[in-house]
Amino acid sequence: MARLERVTVPSVLEMKRRGERIAMLTAYDYPTARLLERAGVEVILVGDSLGMVTLGYDSTVPVTLEEMIHHVKAVVRGTSRALVVGDLPFGSYGESPGQAVRSATRLVKEGGCDAVKLEGGSEMVAAVEAVVRVGIPVVGHVGLLPQSAGRYGGFRVQGKTAAEARELLQGARDLQAAGAFMVVVEAVPAPVGEAISRALEVPVIGIGAGAGCDGQVLVTPDMLGLQEELSPRFLKRYANLAGTIVEAAGRYVSEVKEGRFPEEVHGYAMDAEEERRFRSGL
Ligand SMILES: Nc1nc(=O)c2c([nH]1)NC[C@@H]1CN(c3ccc(C(=O)N[C@@H](CCC(=O)O)C(=O)O)cc3)CN21
Ligand SMILES: CC(C)C(=O)C(=O)O
Ligand SMILES: [Mg+2]
Fold it and tell me: What residue segments make up the domains of the chain, in order of their start?
């Protein structure tokens, strides 16, 4: 299952050409990155969902570029084959193409990721062009844009009307034309996800965008059942790690309280003569 060759920008483009689906998941730390890579995940996204999943913010808006760099570094240290994409956080790219270039450069140069992702369609064309021009591969993101969720009053499905769907399709086309090598499409009806995937030559990765996309992404702590606060319709839970952790930590608590842990095998022996001299000198 684990692939031996490095996943690169050209290799994900080739996967789309061959019709091979792309498996992407998020990671925010070293051990998770290693495990996902062992499982055969091709693209690891250090999402700004970091803020909600591991830092306890109630949206992705407060996440800083420094926080992203810190976690990108850990994930990069845990990978040798997967393509690592770092999310540009809110406030680090929307002001101007120059700001986008400066932030993307820091994420790649200090964090060590292979590519950056930013949210927005046609309105982000100038930023994408500028980042691509300095040599940094860019992933676009259309549909539900969590950093702008305030604008539509929460995490709402996008592209439900024909007019909105056409606007999303145009946004994705514009991102590709601007040089994006991959586009994430979030929370749109399946026909919209499929149409965008068909329209683009670059891979389209869906999250709540139906089975017609070129690949899928989920937030790893959600799909592992580690975090249970959010339950979007698109989420499938593949494990119940919250239950596993609570059960294990609960048994530890009981054993500590009852003096059943540690046992002799968990301790260090002392030479009998040394112990005798030690005790006699007390
Ligand atoms: N833990 C976590 N998982 C995520 O998938 C995620 C984050 N955090 N943070 C950033 C964004 C926010 N996301 C979300 C969060 C909630 C819904 C959600 O509950 N959506 C409703 C749609 C309601 C409607 O418009 O009808 C749903 O029922 O799926 C969707 C995407 C996806 N991203
Ligand atoms: C949900 C994915 C696509 C994302 O942007 C994130 O994890 O931040
Ligand atoms: Mg994100």
Answer: 9-239, 244-280
